[in-house]
Amino acid sequence: QGKFTLLRDTRTDGSFLVHHFLSFYLRAGCKVCFLALLQSFSHYNIVAQKLGVSLAAARERGQLVFLEGLKSCLDLLFGEETEEEQTGQPSPLQFISESASNLKALFDFVQTSLTPTSGDSWKGPVLLVDDLSVLLSLGAAPVAVLDFIHYCRVAVCSQLKGNIVVLVHSNEDSEDEENELVVNSLCHHSDLILWVEGLATGFCKDVHGEIKIIKRVSLELRAEQDHVQIYQYKIQDKNVTFFARGLSAAVL
């Protein structure tokens, strides 16, 4: 509880980790607020069904609060009323149509979604973001994005004793300085980093990439180095196989 997990991908797609955490927390009986900025609800629902979870059922019983970023953006850009505006609330992505990149409305949405009510029996609140880099593409300033994450950490991790899982895309050779600034800042504040990278040698049918698991011991102010484990992985239809480097089934 109270942990911040950063999912980082470079030269590959790390969304399989988002699907894992989403189904994992829903099965565990946690209240989940999912800021889905990259794909539609039906996309996540189809993948979740393969993993044995129904997002539609979770949303109906109030366990899952789902923000469909693609739809909200279109509604704002083309002047249509969003679901929130119909109930008198500002749209969580209100900053798109304003001159100042203020993510307060998005934070208010998260806080309202995860603050427990008297009838709640969920085990703990979880904020899941896929993916944070999209906010920069929509015009939010790096400082505004980092402020948003900071406030979410205080509200979700410190006050509500919940967890936050955030996916960011990164490319160390990229000229997108704003994105790299956000990624590097988040790395310094994370309790756990799952860094997925494509193979340096290129595409391989039996090994889809490499994952670096970094447990941030240094955050706890001990005089120890962070624990780093490196595995390779292969994504299958309903699960992912992990193995030590050079020990894939194709090699053995």
From TrEMBL:
Pfam families: ELP6. One of its GO terms (cellular component) is cytoplasm. Pathway: tRNA modification; 5-methoxycarbonylmethyl-2-thiouridine-tRNA biosynthesis. It comes from the Eukaryota. GO terms for biological process: tRNA wobble uridine modification. Keywords: Cytoplasm, Nucleus, tRNA processing. It is found in: Cytoplasm; Nucleus. The keyword tRNA processing applies. InterPro entries: ELP6 (IPR018627), P-loop_NTPase (IPR027417). Belongs to the ELP6 family. This is Elongator complex protein 6. It comes from Nycticryphes semicollaris.
